[in-house]
């Protein structure tokens, strides 16, 4: 276990008494946890280096998976180097803010020299403008709404800093109305989609990554202007399989202790499947959701798949 890992875990332990399910405060109409909203001016003012890479997703859409792929590509598939620290230390979470002494994303970024890899869940309109002004590379990962919602629901159950998710049927309503942390899934996936060509955003789909991980790893590699051998690509595909990542203490968020993530309620890495929504939606709920989805997505044609 690295020194950074100890420091991060210990900081969370020390902040344990201050951990609570933080309320949501809207920033330009997007609900964000109060600690983020209260630090918004500093987040919005962040100036990335042109060499920085941003990984953007709606929560629980394949963020950690993509972070691990990118880190392994940058280190030529060296698994040991990529175990130097847990994911949130290796790849800082831009907007995250927590009670002291847990370092914020901005705190961690100040300690890193460019080029840096940065994570965000912010919708397109809330990404600090410096990323676009400096023409930073951005990888966006989108996951079909039904599976994304199921994963987010279980995450909100175990993440004791997010608002209480309540019962499943009520959670569906909150998801459809964009009343969850980081706002509307619909606005999120559409915002990056319509800007993807103008902003040179690599727009990936979780379902494509599950169906053919090697192809998508190669797409990420080319977008990053890297070149690694076929052997290394095969190794990265293996190292980033769901099974291997679930067992990797530097990627499975076991570094976050129970006052924040209660893995006994639901593991951070739960199933990683396409189509798990069929185990949660009743036929009536699915019909209601599909009708609302069609209305909310009528202005775009994003090729989502709910099964593969």
Key structural traits:
308 residues, alpha/beta, Rossmann fold, two-stranded antiparallel ribbon, 15 helices, globular, disordered N terminus
What would a concise description of this structure say?
Its main location: cytoplasm. With 308 residues, the chain is an alpha/beta fold.
Description of the structure:
This protein is an alpha/beta fold and 308 residues long. It has one domain (3-296): Rossmann fold (3-Layer(aba) Sandwich), CATH 3.40.50.300. The chain is 42% helix and 9% strand. It has 15 helices and six strands. It has helices spanning 3-14, 34-37, 40-44, 63-74, 87-90, 105-110, 130-133, 145-158, 168-177, 185-195, 206-211, 213-223, 230-239, 242-246, 283-296, and strands spanning 24-27, 30-33, 53-57, 117-120, 137-142, 201-205. The strands form two sheets. Strands 4-3-5-6 form a four-stranded parallel beta sheet, sandwiched between helices. Helix 12 packs across helix 13 (230-239). It is globular, with a radius of gyration of 18 Å. Residues 1-6 have low confidence and may be disordered.
User: How far apart are the first and last residues' alpha carbons, in Å?
Assistant: 38 Å
Task: Write the CATH homologous superfamily.
Answer: P-loop containing nucleotide triphosphate hydrolases
CATH architectural category: 3-Layer(aba) Sandwich
Output the structural class. Answer: alpha/beta
Subunit arrangement of the protein: single chain
Form type: globular
CATH topology: Rossmann fold
The major sheet is characterized as: 4 strands, parallel
CATH class: Alpha Beta
Count every beta strand, where a strand is a DSSP E run of 2 or more residues: 6
What is the spatial order of strands in the main beta sheet?
Answer: 4-3-5-6
| Strand content range | 5-15%
- What ranges have pLDDT less than 50 throughout 5 or more consecutive residues? 1-6
Count of domains? 1
Q: How are helices and strands ordered from N to C?
A: HEEHHEHHHEHEHHHEHHHHH
What percent of residues adopt helix (DSSP H or I)? 40-55%
